[in-house]
Each structure stands twice: as C-alpha cells, then as structure tokens.
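Researcher: Here's a chain I'd like modeled. Treat it as a single chain, no partners, no ligands.
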Amino acid sequence: MAPQSTRCSWCGRTVEPDEGWRVRASPGARVAAFCRLEHVVPWSIQGAPWEAGELDGPDAEGVDSCARCGERLGEVRVTLVRHRGAHRIPDGFCSVDHLAEWAKAGGRWR
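Model: Modeled as a single isolated chain. Structure tokens:
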C-alpha cells in the first residue's frame, strides 16, 4: 500500500509523502504537516492547532537537544522531520515557540 499524502496544516496544500515537514508533539498523539518551513510561523502564531494522529515512519531517534537553544530534551518535546525524497532529516525542540523561532531564522539554513 502506498503512503498517503496529507494537507499542509497552514495553507491546505497537498504534501506528498516524500516532501515537506512533519511535526509531532510528545507525549500525546498530536501532529501537523507543512509544505514549506515558513508555514510553521503563522501556524504557531494562530495557537498551533494540532491534528490527532501519529507520524508514519521512523521518529527522530538520536535527537537529544533542542535545535534552537541547545538544552537537553526531556519526555516533553516537539519533533520536526523534514521529508526530502527518501531522506528523513530530524530536529527536536523543547517547545512550539522554539520551533517557530528556529523556522523564522531559516531553520538549518540560517
């Protein structure tokens, strides 16, 4: 069975399985998807309206510190996984605010 596409949590555009960004809040079964990294910013400003669900595929194993502040992540965390073709590029954050600040600053490309 082929992986299903999803919709961007900000603009509603279709996000295919091998593109975009997927976000998960832990603990809990809350997810969001984005076609563009910068869509994280207005989504977070509007209160980060999550959807119920789990991320498909591997989680961000090995990510143990916040990509924004460098603090060690605990059980409560926000995980962002970039889908780029067959590649999955994970980052972790201690809060949605740190995810949004990181995205606003250009993410990994700052």
